[in-house]
Input
Amino acid sequence: MRRTAVLGIAAAALLVTAGYGLAQSALELSSPDERNVVTVGVVEGALVYALERDGRTVLLPSRLGFEFRDAPPLLEGLEITGSERHGNDEVWEQPWGEVALVRDLHNELRVSVAETGDPGRQFVVVFRAFDDGIAFRYELPEQPGLEEFAITDELTEFHLAEDPRAWWIPANDPTHRYELLYRSSPASTIPEVHTPLTLETLDGPVLVIHEANLVDYAGMNLTGSWERRLSVTLPAWADGVKVRGRTPFVTPWRTIQIADRAADLAPSTIGLNLNPPNVLEDVSWIEPMKYVGIWWGMHINKVTWSSGPRHGATTENTRRFIDFAADNGFGGVLVEGWNVGWDGDWIANADLFSFTEAYPDYDLPALAAYASERGVSLIGHNETSMGVENYESQLDDAFALYQGLGIRALKTGYVGDKTAEGHAHHGQYMVRHWRRVIEAAARHEIMLNVHEPIKDTGERRTYPNMMTREGARGMEYNAWGREGGNPPEHHTILYFTRMIAGPLDYTPGVFDILVSSSDGTPRLPEESRLRTTLAKQLALYVVLYSPLQMAADLPENYEGQPAFQFIRDVPADWELTATLGGRIGDFVVVLRKDRNGPDWYLAAITDEEARSFDITLSFLPEGENFVAEIYADGEGAHWLDNPFPIEISEQPVDAGSSLTLSLAPGGGQAIRIRPAE
Output
């Protein structure tokens, strides 16, 4: 019988007293509202923890520990040598975000652990209990028996008491890097998957397992088993080591967010509260904004990244986008393919990219100056193709150039599975690299939008210039995705899975839903195209949050479109956010309040089913009159064969009003609620 099975049987036999009393060594930690209770103790020499919510078992005793290269595992022969308790209740303000103010209310238990025999190593496990979940991390203090080390496996488990429905994407797809359609299955059957991992119990809480404050460690994946044990798995260095370190050392937090229903999961702040406070003295240069860019035309093959007769990043074309941005109130213009390196197989030729030298038909200084004259900023683009050493060798020179030209935001890219040296895309080597880029960008006052990223683990609290990232199957798959584009349910899944981690640069706002070819012929239903209605494209600006939010379509596709007014109006920074309703894979209803004005925004999206919702407006201030500007699916709208009908209307509303939101199949509705004039 395997060691984990023996441990599970022994633990189950011992954890039978109130609160999972673990013999005489049991320690308990409750959340401030006392609904979540963690129990920690030693069973047959192994350190385990368990979790209850409202007296219901969520996690059975789950092991903690490590395996090392050239050293014995830190798993057995352990004892608890001491503990400390702390409490915290503070409110802090985000420079930008889904909410302006975040409350950090938690109880903390520090559990000191030591080996009873040689080599006598010591460590601490720190638990924090919040009303919306728990978190824990390992701390390895400086000590003679544990100095430099190489972790070959982290032995942390999440032993589920039930077999909930899991929403997941596989972790070992070599070409997509989070960019996959979500699947659902019993948690016991999942392969190695990425986090956040969302778990729905049949009649109880919804869980999200993720991590926070990932700084110098490998990104965490999870692997299921028939015993319902979710085991931590870590991407490796080229030599197979998972994590290299030297004491004193701390791991990322392992987080278990808990909610009574899916709609209570967002907005999630548990990861933000587990990161250190903002280290930037001046954040006045960090400004959420909407942007346009030379991007979508490349994906639909109207222009190219590479130089030549169809080059997209020309001076003339960029001036056109700058004028469009300035005329419509957008803050930035993204330009991809401007720099030398895109010709030929740019994925294979990663070391050929220059991040300072432009193609001859792109006048970078003149365009930066012209953008500034028009009140717009260029958004630079650095595709590395995982040529990390090439990128780092140019990093400071490139960022200094951009800063001198007034380029305030940068999109980076990491297409590729591994580095040239064989280090994993989500391993410790790359985590260290991404942190170096964030810090370098902060020194040069540059905001970041990272594609093919490492997952969001809340570092935007510490470095608010880390604005947004991809890390999901986004809009471009509607141009060339193998499955014909993202299905109608996709966005309703993203909201409760990927979006729990943090902002997503999904790049919404494509009005040419059928993705016309170069001769103007729309694509057939089975071909790659958008699988939403026009109104749903508007609703995504409220549902899928990003502080850098793109209007992704070509400028000419917005001309003469009254619905474009909503994209002009909708902000990219919020004071308040609330999920008014939702079911994973079915629908979402979201309310947000503009941080810099009196407007409220309400949006709903659905899967392939038509739905209707009655929403009361009691959130509005009493005694004040408002106007609801409504962008709704028009008569006969349907994502498959009639996506364009949209009905735009206005009606007076106040705190006593209610609105009926009627959504077509694959549709949505977007509402701006502004003070009456």
